[in-house]
Q: What sequence folds into this?
């Protein structure tokens, strides 16, 4: 699960892909990184949650949200991710959120797990 997310972060470190985020999303990432269920994955990287957040933040291009999405799915908290994806004009949104993944697609944006995204883009490893 998280191994693929860390591989994707390495692609961003190596300038093989761009990651877009908003300040609102980074705030949520900060909160989520402190969930106990993620500690075992973070521990494999031998970093603290705040160090991982700093790394993620450094790899992100912060998007100014100019296209706000409302009510796209059952969880209003997910609208910020769709708004960011549309404002950044991306092709894929990588998420582990069930409500977002259930959408599969929003407008022309594919919604994938980290594993799906990694498997579809493994050629970036070369």
A:
């Amino acid at each position: 699960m998280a191994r693929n997310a860390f591989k994707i972060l390495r692609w961003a470190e190596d300038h093989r892909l761009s990651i877009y985020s908003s300040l609102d999303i980074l705030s949520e990432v900060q909160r989520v990184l402190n969930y106990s269920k993620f500690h075992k994955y973070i521990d494999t990287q031998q970093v603290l949650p705040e160090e991982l957040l700093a790394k993620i933040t450094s790899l992100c291009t912060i998007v100014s949200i100019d296209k706000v999405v409302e009510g796209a799915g059952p969880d209003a908290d997910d609208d910020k991710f769709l708004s960011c994806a549309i404002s950044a004009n991306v092709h894929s949104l990588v998420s582990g959120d069930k409500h977002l993944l259930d959408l599969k697609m929003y407008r022309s944006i594919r919604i994938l797990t980290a594993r799906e995204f990694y498997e579809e883009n493994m050629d970036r490893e070369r």
In short: The radius of gyration is 14 Å. Residues 2-117 form one domain. The longest helix spans residues 2-13. The CA atoms of residues 49 and 60 lie 17 Å apart.
